[in-house]
Amino acid sequence: MDTGTRLSGKVAIVTGGASGIGAETARVFAGQGATVVVCDLNDALGQAVVAELGGGAEYRSLQVTDEGQWADLVREVEAAHGKIDILTNIAGISGRDPEQNIQTTLTAGGLLEDQTLEKWNQIMEVNATGTFLGTKAIIAPMRRAGGGSVVNISSICGIVGSFANAAYHASKGAVRIFSKAAAVQYAPDKIRVNSIHPGFVDTPMTQPGHSNPEIAQIRMDATPLGRFGTPRDIAMGCTYLASDEAAWITGSELVIDGGMTAA
Question: Active-site residue numbers?
Answer without folding.
Answer: 168
